[in-house]
Design brief:
324 residues; alpha/beta; Rossmann fold; 12 helices
Length: 324
């Protein structure tokens, strides 16, 4: 068992798959010689060489166009979009080309690729470099969407994504890069579409993703001292979504809270709330509550960014008030 940072887990996950499969290639801006703008890909160029670790021009369209062509012709590319906000520059490739290739060719042409990106706020990068865009991705049929919260999950979900026959968008939360976690030795392979129950409690179910997972766990620790016991679920995979785990938990606790970094309008938690209200309405003892970021651009000022994002204080206070 080794302790890795979330940042180190990125390179470890990519390297594991590149060692296993020579058809896996990696491309993006500054991913080779510079080791990544967040230093998440250090050492990959030295191990695998410039034919498999490719520094690209500053063009998100070029990166995804090249990755799409490579995936369609036998390779398994991992492409990096440096900041998830920049998906807006190349969204046509994702939504209209990559996501639809298998469908529009009746299965003759697949697009097995992973697009990984730094997502989310907390680093004071302002409105154009701090967005959480997983709700954009969820809305596109044909792509899978994952967002790990720990180094182990990052490696395991990276492996599952690379080996999947369809395109996967893998969001790495930028504020988690320095966080640490234990990672077992040997190959790590996880499964898409499986949530993880991190804590069991009888009073309410809390569903969280990425940076909101450790914050939900901190809130649960505080409330436990006051006699309020929460189940905390790390969604991990939004598409496919593990509805069975969520519904099973709600059946036991009878209350549901979602903790989302997305802007409130059309966040991923709204979809989960819709599913629970349709399939588990009679299990609920009170209204579903969403704890979210307001529907506004994020400020770069530290105090304003912190005010916008859900933190352990707001999560705990909201749950305590709702449970009465």
């Amino acid at each position: 068992m080794a302790e890795l940072t979330y940042r180190e887990a990125v390179a470890a996950g990519i390297a594991q798959e590149m060692r296993r499969d020579p058809s896996v290639v990696f491309l993006g801006e500054d991913v080779g010689g510079a080791g990544g703008v967040f230093k998440t890909t250090a050492g990959l160029l030295e191990e695998f060489g410039p034919d498999r670790v490719v520094d690209t021009p500053i063009s998100e369209q070029a990166i995804l166009g090249a990755a799409m062509g490579a995936a369609m012709t036998g390779l398994r590319p991992i492409a990096e979009i440096m900041f998830s906000d920049f998906f807006a520059v190349c969204w046509d490739f994702v939504a209209n080309e990559i996501a639809k290739s298998r469908y529009m060719t009746d299965g003759m042409v697949g697009c097995p690729l992973v697009i990984r990106s730094g997502n989310g706020a907390g680093l004071r990068f302002g409105a154009q470099h701090s967005q959480s865009i997983e709700n954009w991705a969820m809305a596109v049929p044909g792509v899978k969407v994952v967002a790990p919260s720990t180094p182990k999950d990052l490696i395991g979900l990276m492996a599952a994504s690379v080996r999947d026959p369809d395109p996967v968008l893998l969001f790495e939360h930028k504020a988690l890069y320095p966080s640490k976690g234990e990672v077992p030795e040997g190959e790590i392979v996880d499964e898409l579409g499986k949530a993880r129950v991190l804590r069991d409690g009888s009073d309410a179910t809390v569903v969280a993703l990425a940076l909101m997972v450790p914050r939900a766990l901190e809130a649960a620790d505080r409330l436990a001292a006051e006699g309020i016991h929460l189940t905390v679920i790390d969604v991990r995979s939004l598409v496919p979504l593990d509805t069975a785990t969520i519904l099973r938990s709600v059946a036991g606790t009878s209350r549901l809270f979602t903790v989302e970094e997305n802007p409130r309008l059309c966040g991923w938690g709204a979809e989960i709330c819709s599913i629970v209200s349709e399939e588990a309405f009679w299990d609920l003892d009170g209204p579903i509550v969403r704890i979210t970021t307001p529907h506004l651009p994020l400020a770069s000022a530290p105090n304003l960014e912190d005010l916008a994002l859900p933190d352990a204080d707001r999560i705990a206070a909201t749950i305590k008030a709702a449970l009465g």
